[in-house]
Specification:
alpha/beta, 484 residues, five-stranded parallel sheet, 15 helices
Amino acid sequence: MSKDLRVAIIGAGMAGILAAIKLKEFGIKNISIFEKANGVGGTWRDNSYPGLHCDVPSHHYTYSFERNPNWSNFYSSGPEIREYFEGIFVKNKLEQICLFNTEITSLSFKEGLWEITTNKAKTYEADIVIGATGVLHHPYLPDLEGINNFDGYKFHSAKWDHGLSLKEKKVGVIGSGSTGIQIVSALSGQCRHLYHFQRTAQWMMPLENGSFSDEEKLLFQDPKNLSEAMNFEEYFDAVEIYSQALLDKDSIGANEIAFACKENLEKNIHDEVLKKKLTPDHTPLCKRLIWSSDYYPAIQKPECTLITKPIKKITNEGIELLDSNLIDLDVIVFATGFKVDQFLRPIKTFGIDGISLDDYWKEYPKAYLSIAIPKFPNLFLLNGPNGPVGNFSLIDIAEHQMNYILDLIKIIRKRQCHIDVKTDITESYERDRAAAAKKTVWYTGGCTSWYLNAAGIPASWPWTYKDFKKEMSKPDLEAFELIE
């Protein structure tokens, strides 16, 4: 191990940028960011579909050390968030340490070092590897008959074709998660006709997205004023209530959310047939809650049609339904989400004695506190398996996790050692996590969703926000083995 620790970061998205900045502040000089694409921003770089915005309040979806007083709206658009990350990347001169268009193909722990192989047939070495690959970066396409037969235009929402004019097109959007809802809300009335193919109705919370005035932005230039406007105590109280609602579908918070969702549907959908189609058959919060005040008005426009009959297959002309009706289309958009169990994969990763990460994750991905994997020393993950992906702001999560990792790196630097989480501790933690997850609304709410892993267990943090902060406040060194 070199005295000047060499740290490799995988990914130049939100978490990778955070890791690089914090490592530099920590005094680590030898840092490399490996980015498979030609730009930064991760999911905010890859996704650029119409209507894209964040459902976390703008001022809370920022790094705590780099607040942005100039947000345009209460909830920021995708392009503005991407610009925020790009600006911070440049401000911190991270282009000097970032290897763009460099995809890691394998990671191997050999003789106390991580050997890194890339698509450019060049090998690197690192003492520490931080995986900041994110969760939503491998697009998922449904297994539909004839998916390659369509003669029109088709693409996944994360690969939007901005060169294509939709004005005179008949467009079909498959998928009714947050992405599908945002796309339909934005495109309704903007094309010849829009068909929304819904497999499962979703509960929606109203979300009025107002804008900040020039006077407010000027006021926010003073950090004290911005801090007061962010009202941290009220915000984190709301986060705690939300997490309690996820843990107990009979809690006061859960009942309030359920009432607001049902009232939103009742007040805004007037046609009883359409209302029935849009009424979910599961408990609110069972699936990722959708925040929108735009969808219900959009789906009721004459140029928009909700399709709830199951899809039989895709044909040359469009989409054939199970009842044999054919919907003639010019464009098909797959708003069908991502493969959420990949994390580091498809990187071939090998730990102590050649143990394969694919083998360890054969049942489903697991990691101690979402950060460390046994037999993979000095390898740490940000927003790794079973973290609070559906609970809190991902930036806030990553900052807490990064502070935790820095505490471990401090030991590595001082002792010139490797840190490996213990197998029995990890397995015990995962048993407790899985048991707790089966008590959450994701499991008891009567639905299937992308929150459920291959074993049918919710793949997320099943405790409160306060519990998360407490766990991240300081590593329990009894859980780790120090390899000198």
